[in-house]
Specification:
It is a single chain. The protein is of the alpha/beta class and about 475 residues long. It folds into three domains: about 140 residues, no CATH class; about 120 residues, Rossmann fold (3-Layer(aba) Sandwich), CATH 3.40.50; about 190 residues, no CATH class. Helices cover about 55% and strands about 10% of the residues. It is built from 16 helices and ten strands.
Length: about 475
């Protein structure tokens, strides 16, 4: 069963559970706690219309619906308990605390009743749902389509270990080799080709997981392969050495699982990712409304400074390597790149007078709030580059492709620390800060970067 359909099914279960829980709570609170006759009034109808929707939104921001197939019972229990506790507290303080009661003990009873009913009404169908799903995955009917990279004895060893597990979650679709010689797995799995054609193979064969059967000490080979495939929803796993185990790099969620490292584990929790996107949209709408006078002023300035369009649109590479059109105020004369792609410099004669002013204050980036609303960009993230320069950077440092795992941003740690890059070497220097951001992503860090960006704008210290 496909993940989108699973998400819809769980969402519907949660919606009806929240609806039933609120109706039951409303009834028992009136009859058992307040000891009044149960009446269906306006507050009851408002409750059944709004409260279940609020619960669904709460679960969404918690990250419950991010990847349904990778949920398991203990994780689902934790998610349900935390969500019920925080959600019940929120409803208690916003809707119930103002009610007139004979004594404060009724408040405690109301909260416990709300928490208890909602938790049990929600967890029971969730457990049934996830138990059926886990059983289908373990039986191979809905397992994760897995590609094994490597054809040596080590690859055979890890394959035998995984298929020999009492509860394996992997459905192997085939293997590819690295050195062109080792094909010892050919008697067990279909041979799909050589690692040189890895991207093409992944396009032709839908894959959920990739297991790289190389020792983690083979850094160069591992780094090259991971850089080429990292991104999107692919889960990448490698074999750990003793240092990886002792340092705590090995992530285990299943006691029957093989000893593997999930190398592309997301550093930002799911609830923070959902909150980040909400902040992107909300703050962008606010920014666009407040900046309307600035947009008008800058548009007039661009139009008066030189002939040509007000806005400059250019193809950049975004999330998962997908191209998009970035929107900026035009800061250069028309046909500034008639000789081919060129990076600008501090004293670039192609920059118009108003363009120099806008670059100093980063005003040329303001139209990118529309890119954020369209989903192409985020407020904070690695700056998007053109494919022309990405190809050059990757030849020197393949790790640059890691930056396409997330939405590019209007501002970034690299932009704050380094500013605009004038050549590929400076792009590589700025990349270090953006890679560091990727490993430490959090809402707190995003807010800090935004505050520093505002200071740069105020002080006109943009580079």
């Amino acid at each position: 069963m496909r993940s989108p359909l699973l998400t819809v099914l769980l969402l519907l279960l949660d919606y009806f559970a929240a609806l039933v829980a609120w109706i039951a709570f409303y009834y028992f609170r009136k009859v058992s706690i307040e000891r009044v006759e149960f009446e269906v009034g306006q507050s009851f109808y408002w409750g059944i219309a709004i409260i279940p929707v609020l619960w669904i939104l709460f679960y969404y921001f918690q990250g419950t619906y991010h990847d349904i197939r990778r949920l398991y019972r203990f994780k689902l229990f934790n998610l349900t308990f935390v969500a019920t506790l925080l959600g019940s507290l929120s409803l208690f303080f916003t809707l119930l605390l103002d009610d007139e009661v004979d004594n404060y003990q009724l408040y405690y009873k109301s909260f416990l009743l709300l928490f208890g009913i909602h938790f049990f009404v929600t967890i029971i169908p969730r457990f049934i749902f996830i138990t059926i799903l886990v059983s289908r995955i373990h039986s191979g009917k809905a397992g994760f389509r897995t590609l094994l990279i490597g054809g040596s004895e080590k690859a055979v060893e890890i394959y035998n270990e995984i298929i020999g597990l009492p509860k394996s979650t992997n459905n192997f679709i085939g293997f590819i080799n690295i050195n062109g010689v080792d094909r010892q797995l050919e008697s067990k799995l279909p041979y799909l080709g050589h690692a040189d054609n890895l991207e093409k193979i992944l396009l032709e064969h839908p894959v959920d997981e990739v297991i790289i059967a190389l020792e983690s000490i083979e850094h160069d080979k591992l780094k090259s392969i991971i850089s080429r495939i990292e991104g999107g929803n692919l889960v990448i796993k490698i074999l750990p050495d003793m240092y990886d185990i002792l340092s705590g790099s090995v992530k285990m969620t299943n006691i029957f699982g093989a000893l593997l490292i999930e190398v592309n584990a997301e550093s930002m929790p799911l609830w923070q990712q959902a909150t980040k996107r909400f902040m992107d949209v909300f703050l962008s709408i606010i920014a666009i409304i407040l900046l309307i006078p600035v947009y008008i002023f800058l548009a007039i300035g661009v139009k008066m400074s030189s002939s040509g369009p007000i806005f400059f649109m250019q193809e950049r590479i975004g999330l998962n390597g997908i191209p998009f059109k970035i929107i900026k105020f035009r800061t250069m004369y028309v046909d500034a790149e008639k000789l081919g792609p060129q990076l600008s410099s501090s004293n670039d004669p192609r920059i118009t007078p108003i363009g120099r002013f806008m670059r100093k204050l980063r005003f040329d980036e303001f139209p990118q709030f529309f890119n954020v609303l369209l989903g192409d960009m985020s407020l904070v993230g690695p700056r998007p580059e053109r494919q022309f320069y990405i190809d050059q950077i990757v030849q020197i440092e393949p790790q640059y492709l890691h930056l396409t795992k997330v939405r590019p941003g209007i501002t970034s740690w690299g932009q704050v620390k380094y500013g605009y890059a004038e050549n590929v070497e400076q792009m590589l220097q700025r990349m270090k800060f953006d890679l560091l951001y990727m490993k430490n992503r959090s809402l707190a860090l995003d807010i800090k970067i935004m505050l520093y960006t505002i200071l740069i704008v105020i002080k006109a210290k943009g580079k």
